[in-house]
Design brief:
5-stranded antiparallel β-sheet; alpha/beta; Alpha-Beta Plaits; 15 strands; nucleotide-binding; 6-stranded mixed β-sheet; binds adenosine-5'-triphosphate; transport; ATP-binding; Rossmann fold; ABC transporter; ATP binding
């Protein structure tokens, strides 16, 4: 669905050259949901703007939905939906009309455009605004209309650049419900960026981590997390006096590392916490050590970024 080779973009600002994207190779298969993750200024939006034909690359090549972004940008545009940062809607129309006009623009007949517009207005909680002037919508309502505009023609490939920005939690969850529904029903391919790591984690099958205009890692969220030092397993002891004996048993587990006895618990890292937990519970039980509980904490995508770069994504995004 997407194939890029050495895709790059630089900008000249004053005397300086900014290498926003420094040659990325991206392959996305039909039906995949891929998240682009990286700190502010990493090059995510620039990459999406090239793939959606809004910006010409300065080097490299890309085909999107079967067409070359350089030679066939119009063919690309007809096959994609794009919900970008700061998409503007046109003023002067009412909300429903605007959405229907967008559907008609993409070749839907009047009846289908109307039906889908009403469905999206309802899903994105804009039914009450259907007959209001677009110019009179609040910021959040306009944002939801932008989202609806990107979805009306049910594109086989959807780009979402920070789709949740400016949406309240309720609208955000409606948006994701609709997007995942589209994928389940129509096999929509989705490429997204979001600052909400939990959204990438929950929705993306594959994550591409970008930093300083380059891809520094990619894989499923689980693959990426398993490259980090592993899951944190904590066993809580009924008797704090058992902690050194428990720590010795934990240290004996193959692959266990960073064994840390606490006041009334012992924690350690292993690559697969869920499989190791029953093993340590059995070993502690056999040694007569009683437990109050166990916990397995999976690393987050932020831990992954931290281990790759020494910086936290959250430092940028709050
Ligand atoms: N039109 C432009 N002129 C000059 N520099 C630009 C331009 N657009 C982007 N840049 C620079 O290119 C780099 C990458 O920007 P980009 O917007 O792609 O990052 P991003 O990963 O999407 O960040 P964010 O998460 O903040 O949206 C930044 O250093 C940015 O300042």
């Amino acid at each position: 669905m997407i194939h890029t080779t050495g895709l790059a973009r630089r900008f000249h600002s004053g005397r300086q050259t900014v290498h926003a994207v420094r040659g990325v190779d991206i392959d996305v298969a039909p039906g995949e949901v891929v998240g682009l993750l990286g700190p502010n200024g990493a090059g995510k939006s620039t990459t999406l703007r090239m793939l959606t034909t809004l910006l010409a690359p300065t080097a490299g090549s890309a085909t999107v939905a079967g067409y070359d972004i350089r030679t066939d940008p119009l063919a690309v545009r007809r096959r994609i939906g794009s919900i970008g940062q700061g998409n503007g809607s046109f003023d002067g129309l009412r909300t429903r009309e605007e959405l229907q006009a967008q559907g008609r623009f993409y070749g839907l007949d009047r009846h289908t455009a109307r039906r889908r517009a009403d469905e999206l207005l309802q899903r994105l909680q804009l039914s009450g605004q259907a007959d209001r002037d677009v110019a009179k919508l609040s910021g959040g309502q306009r944002r939801r209309l932008d989202v609806a505009m990107g979805l009306i023609h049910r594109p086989p490939l959807l780009f979402l650049d920070e789709p949740s920005a400016g949406l309240d939690p309720h609208s955000r969850s409606n948006l994701w419900e609709h997007v995942t529904g589209m994928r389940a029903e129509h096999g929509t391919t989705i490429v997204m960026t979001t600052h909400y790591l939990e959204e990438v984690d929950a929705a993306a099958q594959r994550v591409i981590i970008i930093d300083h205009g380059r891809i520094i890692a990619e894989g499923t969220p689980d693959q990426l997390k398993s490259k980090v030092s592993g899951d944190l397993v904590t066993v809580e002891l009924a008797d704090p006096g058992d902690r050194s004996a428990a720590a010795t048993i934990a240290a004996g587990i193959p692959t266990a590392h960073e064994v840390a006895p606490g006041r009334d618990a012992v924690s350690f890292r292993v690559s697969h916490g869920d499989t190791v937990t029953p093993e340590i519970v059995r070993a502690l039980d056999a040694a007569g050590i009683r437990l109050r509980g166990t916990q397995v904490q999976r690393p987050t995508l932020d831990d992954v970024f931290l281990s790759l770069t020494g910086r936290s994504l959250r430092e940028d995004h709050g």
